[in-house]
UniProtKB/TrEMBL annotation:
It comes from Molossus molossus. It comes from the Eukaryota. Residues 209-258 are annotated as: Disordered. This is Aldo-keto reductase family 1 member E2. Belongs to the aldo/keto reductase family. Gene3D superfamilies: NADP-dependent oxidoreductase domain (3.20.20.100). The keyword Phosphoprotein does not apply. Pfam families: Aldo_ket_red (PF00248). GO terms for molecular function: oxidoreductase activity. Keywords: NADP, Oxidoreductase. The lineage of its organism: Eukaryota, Metazoa, Chordata, Craniata, Vertebrata.
């Protein structure tokens, strides 16, 4: 599943919806299956799939290779109980990304008093509690660190066990807070006032990652040569930051109202 191919990473239509490619992800899956058949890869999986999308692959006629995993955002503020149990019931493993609350601009999970109390009780760090939380749910976990001491700390999670009470306390922190927002989702943000779409360099498409709460619509200039630079700057003015991969995220304080 991808966006319309072209010079623009994330193309939007006039209504602010991202323009998908006309490729069906089931066809993409077949191409990925070919890679397994050719011995070029051992296993294939998906990321950020909801249960309906996953079900479409699993029930696809003539499925040759089942998805091994679904990599999704998961941490105590987004516990993903239903999706995890769906995946596990279908023998699709789950990988939790942003398990520590994400990199800079993420959420400061490690300051949460519940997590800190559990950490003190086990003489472990909050990061180790967050990692162990996923392991005990039978979820694979990919914490990221560039710091050698923390990398070591993050693998020292097999010498203790969270109690059932600890697990329940962590699960109760869920607030369905999604750090990773995709452009289709960003179009839910309310517009302060409808703005006429602007035609950019002969194209009908707009690059509109976000409309602000009381702010102005950000139409990002397109410069095929220097696309990433200006877009990132504009995005940051518009309250967005680019995360790892190709996703846009809303900065704290600019979330959609409940
Ligand atoms: N599939 C997708 O759509 C998707 C989307 C987003 C992310 N991901 C993947 O998920 C992985 C993790 O994501 P992420 O880096 O955004 O979030 P994360 O692992 O939740 O958080 C990383 C942040 O935590 C810090 N950290 C790591 N270990 C720590 C420790 N022991 N104590 C205190 N702080 C610690 C890191 O700082 P230092 O580096 O300075 O230690 C970094 O700022 C990455 O591999 C990423 O590629 C996948």
């Amino acid at each position: 599943m991808g966006f319309k191919p072209g010079e623009i990473d994330v193309p939007f239509d006039r209504s602010g919806m991202v323009i998908p490619s006309n490729t069906n992800f089931l066809d993409t899956w077949e191409a990925m299956e070919d890679l397994v058949t050719a011995g070029l890869v051992k296993a294939i999986g998906v990321s950020n799939f909801n249960h309906e999308q996953l079900e479409r692959i699993l029930t696809k006629p003539n499925l040759r290779v089942r998805p091994l995993t679904n990599q999704i955002e998961c941490h105590p503020y987004l516990t993903q109980r239903n999706l995890i149990s769906f995946c596990q019931s279908r023998d699709v493993s789950v990988i939790a990304y942003q398990p520590l609350g994400g990199s800079s601009g993420g959420v400061d999970l490690m300051d949460n008093p519940v997590i800190q109390t559990i950490a003190r009780k086990h003489h472990k760090s909050p990061a180790q509690i967050l990692i162990r939380f996923q392991i005990q749910r039978n979820v694979i976990v990919v914490p990221k660190s560039v710091n050698p001491k923390r990398i070591l700390e993050n693998i020292q999670v097999f010498d203790f066990e969270l109690t059932e009470q600890d697990m329940n306390d962590l699960l109760r922190l869920n607030r369905n807070l999604r750090l990773t927002m995709f452009p289709t989702v960003l179009s839910w943000l309310p517009l302060p006032a409808p703005l006429p779409p602007r035609q950019i360099q002969g194209s009908e498409e707009l690059v509109r990652p976000r409309t602000g709460l009381g702010g102005t619509e950000a139409e990002l200039p397109r410069n095929p040569q220097k696309q990433r630079g200006p877009r990132s700057k504009e995005a940051s003015r518009a309250g967005l930051r680019k995360s790892t991969g190709t996703v846009w995220q809303v900065l704290p304080g600019t979330e959609r109202p409940a």
